[in-house]
Amino acid sequence: MRLRYAVSMSTLSERLAAGPDAEAAGLRLERLRDAGLAIPVDGSAVSLLAGILASGSFLPQLLLTDPSRFTRLCSDPWLTREKPRNLFAREVADACSHARSFADLQGALRRCAQYEMLRLGVREMSSETLDVARELSGLADACLEAAVSYCAAELSAGYGEPVCSDSAAGYSVLAMGKLGGDELNFSSDIDVLYIYASDDGHAGSLGLHEYYARLSKAVTRALAESTGDGMVFRVDLRLRPEGQSGAICNSLRAAESYYEAFGRTWERQALLRARHAAGDAWVGEAFLKLVEPFVYPRAVGPQTLNDVRALRRMFVAANSHASWDVKLGTGGIRDVELVAQVLQLLYGGKRPDLRDRTTLPSLGKLALAGLISDHENRTLAEAYKLWRRIEHRIQLEDAQQVHRLPETAEGMATLAGRLGYAGPDEFMAVVEEKRAAVCAIADTLGEPASGPPAMVLRLLAAATAKEIVESDLRAAGFRDIEQSSYRLELARGRMPAEWLEEAIASPDPDHALARFSDLALRASLGLFALLRDDRQLLRILAGLFGTSERLSRHLITHPELWQRLTLGLGEPAPEESAWNAQLAERLRGCDYEAALRELRRFQAEEILRIGLCDVAGDLDHEAVSAQLGRLAEACLRECAVRVARDLVARYGRPSCELSILVLGSCGAREMRYGSDLELVFLYEREGTTRADVEHQEWFGRFAQRLLSALGALLEEGRLYTVDTRLRPSGSQGTLVTSYRAFEEYHREQAAPWERVALLRGRVACVLDGDQLSPNSIFAEPLQRTAYERPVSADLLHDELERMRSLIERERAGKHLHLRFSSGGLTDFDFMAAWAQLRQGAEDPALRTTSPLRAIRRLVERNDMDARLLDHYHFLARACLRLRLLRDHADDRLFGNDEQPLARSLEMERPQLLAQLASRMADVRQELTRQLG
């Protein structure tokens, strides 16, 4: 026995020494001997073991796990010929028939798979690679079938058999990708779809979707969960409708709806290989029949070819690695498959004879039809066989899912030896020759004439690896890579490529993607059909979603605005009388509540129109503020009339007018997105209505109801938040004040800052009973109160400095505030106020509620350098754009807003920050100079 053992070891050692990777093979032998493997003495068994040891680490590891497998392997009748698919199914079913638990099922599947991987690894070294790929696919089918059978029985035992109301119950596992084409490799994932017959029915207490979802999860776990025995196959569900964010399984009807609404060229391409693999064959066949018109339309437009060309460009761009990728690199496996699939997509609708799931038979049929030449067929087929053989040998090294040639000289020499070449030079010469020949044929498909960049296509492809997605997101300017990757996963099934391309070009790609994922979860199929058909609308929205958080949410929460968008952006500057007539027509015949709702809808549409024109560059900041102010005042007037009408009917008509002052941003004609309305209510005189209600009480009731009408949060939203703290005595004072009391207060009690605030006050609404009046008799007294009382320059100087310091300290905060920080827009307000209160009595041009007009007047008088006007315009535009970017009224510039704001203003971030620093320093210096 000892002699025979020594002889066999010597013989085996000689074989290993003469083969590739001799040192590693010797170490593997020692490990097997230590594990108790009986070393063979017979020539064929020695050859068998030598081949296993020289193949890499994967097959020896399978023997280490169970050395008895070698004895079974030596006598296996299917070692030299292809095992029939039905025999796989029977053997795996028999092995699983004794399972009494899910863990038993998993163990049985893994033992079957490991032995078959060992047998097929040996066959790979002496047989046709594609025969082995077909057997691997048969093994996967058998494992899926056994898992479906066991898991369905367990689930039905617990809940009851599934029962459909409109058809027979049924469930199919559809094979996709390499599994669908019977071309599986040793490290392949298996791409599958889970499809069931109908949602109309139940399985005991479960709905059918829930039942089949549980079944699908169990089948996936049975094969893909890593246990002490490893796994059978990784299960990849990314080709299902909606990708990873979609339901794990779909009914026939749901699948049909998805492909009709969202199906893309790459999904047609994926479905070329689809076939029933396990479960109820009739469901699988029904699915294939259902998607046939999508996969093989009778008429194919040029866009299909363009899409597939772009997909090829996508893979080429993703594989610029130093070593060649046999699967995705140019001239590799994907290029050969692409030639076959493109021609099937283009001609398979009218030529059913061209349809085939497997690559080489597809090429043969295309050659027979004259769509490729015999020479091209032979070239592609020979290269494809070699590429698949290389792929298998690379994966037998250590069972990793790799397709790239080794990067080291030693690794290349080992691979060349395993494939039977004299050395790496000879091997690479053959590879380069065949690769160039495949490239020459694949290049005839041409380059896409137009369409999204390769990066966009990679991001939208369900099969793109996570690390590539994250790298591309980073390169595209996304900042929160983890969140954006998650949102992309949620939404990519419904996201058109053009949308993502526009979103990447927008100021804030992260927000664009976030809002689209919100939309994807809420919008109807009809809306997505609209986006698919109206590319201009799609591009507008993509840019908008990446430019304005405020308007994006506006659209998502006001779905009725979508119809308005299909008509275009709207007129940037509608003529005022026509605009007022349009509003009046919309409110005609509305009762009180209906009018409030219609006003909110009108406001939403107008803010959207203004914002879209702003983003498109059709309105400057002055026009935006003017239109936002006009809208606010129109809403104020319409609400006031309706509130007054109701009060007149109940409490009689007052015998004097009411003036509503607007102050703050609206009074200054600097209304911004999200601005409050700062209001003061003033009535002409004391008195009573015909119903003997005091004016003070009547106008107090009016003010309270108007505040409610403006600020109530209805289903359509809120019109405006109203601030009344600028009234005499602030929050402690009465809500309404007579003209006389107002003048007396400002003459005798008002603090200096209240005088400054009053400079922005103007009458926006005058009511005579329940009718609007064009003029207020208080307009002239208001001007007098603001401008004609003398003011001490020293007192004003000290008060402005105190107020500015207080605002900067308490309201600017730690972040740069475009209004309140040093050099912000508030500095302009104070420069304007300083000039107006000191010189407004003599210079009528300074008597304006607009700080910008006052600053212009100072420039005209040569009291200020004209470049300060440019600073004002820059800061005002930045403020408006910042508010568009975010969904709240705030002019602070946070760190994560810097890049989006810069891109929105067509600048780079460092340029924006430098501009802000320089301009705001100039403004503060000018304020200091003006105040003296």
Structural class: alpha/beta
- Uncertain runs are 1-8
Number of separate strands: 16
Corresponding CATH architecture of the largest domain = 2-Layer Sandwich
Could you state the oligomeric state of the chains shown?
single chain
Largest sheet: 6 strands, mixed
Mean of pLDDT: 89
Count of discrete domains: 5
Question: Can you describe what's shown?
Answer:
With 932 residues, the protein is α/β, with parallel strands linked by helices. It has five domains: 76-295, Beta Polymerase, domain 2 (2-Layer Sandwich); 302-445, Nucleotidyltransferases  domain 2 (Four Helix Bundle (Hemerythrin (Met), subunit A), Up-down Bundle); 454-546, no CATH class; 624-789, Beta Polymerase, domain 2 (2-Layer Sandwich); 794-931, Four Helix Bundle (Hemerythrin (Met), subunit A). Helices cover 61% and strands 7% of the residues. It contains 42 helices and 16 strands. The strands form four sheets. Strands 9, 10, 11, 12, 13 and 14 form a six-stranded mixed sheet that branches. It is elongated, with a radius of gyration of 38 Å.
